[in-house]
Amino acid sequence: MGKDPENRELVRELQEIWELTPEEEFETNVEDAWKKFREEKIDAPKTPSIGYRSHQHTSVLPYVFRAAAVILVILLAGYFAQNYLTNSNIEDPQEFYVMQDLVTESGEKASVSFSDGTRVILNAASTLRFPKRFDGAKREVYLDGEAYFKVAHNPESPFVVHTDKAEIEVLGTEFNVQGWEEDTNTAVTVSEGKVSVKSMNPDKTEKAVLTKGEYTRVEEAKGLAPVQRVKIENHLLWTQGGIHFDNVPFRQVFRHLERKFDVQIQVPDKGILDVPYTSTFRQAELNEIIHVLSASLDMTYERNGSMIKFKE
Fold first, then answer.
1. What is the tens place of the pLDDT at every residue in 94-105?
2. Where are the domains of the chain?
3. SS3 at position 213
4. What sign does the dihedral 129-130-136-138 (CA atoms) show?
5. Whole-structure pTM value
6. Most-buried pick from 97, 239, 273, 310 (CB within 10 A)?
């Protein structure tokens, strides 16, 4: 529509025809209906108007309009298929899909390489939305979960990761983003290069720049936390099968374990969920982790298949 005024006019006419047509099921011979439509158009105004609802046309025109709309849809689709595919460098029809999703289930990880050479490792129970081919001033992806990015350097096209709480922008670097929508924060750790982190909270739109070995998080209600120096290897342990918790509430600890091991965890006192917890498990085994957590909470636990219940 933006390329040619005739395209805009065609779509406008299609919309007007469609809006004038009652919603009902029908069957018709498209070729015959098109002929009837052209005959009706001889004495009709050039552009369909409310006058088409007059009593003398009531019995036939709703079906004619619907058939005409079908014809226009077919012609419009055919026009763009022929011209867009012929006059562009698209290699296959899949290029029409603007975005695609990589989704991991609980207990699994995945990796993907983008068209620009960027490589990503996606953690369990995460979703990464990205285009089949980057085309534009920015390379933008959307993350719900945790992922480690090794971004191909391109000064002409910044790479942007969107979560529901933060926006992370780079030119070419390596960094980790942990940002599940259900959690209260998005955490960013940089292992190489430089990263800009901005809060998406409209009341707290601060921005921080991180370099190698630095960490920050965007908290849902508080905005950006102060930048810290951290041990990078701890925050990347998940890519090698380990787990690191850095002063996060037990609510987030339990959610992380549920995602990683595909289990459900229950506690007798909901107040425990807000207590912060820090620990590192280099070779994460569920039984070992639950044993350590029960000692930290001064509780016993019972496991029945995928259900784990802590008891006072």
1. 444 478 999 999
2. 5-88, 94-240, 241-312
3. coil
4. positive
5. 0.66
6. 310
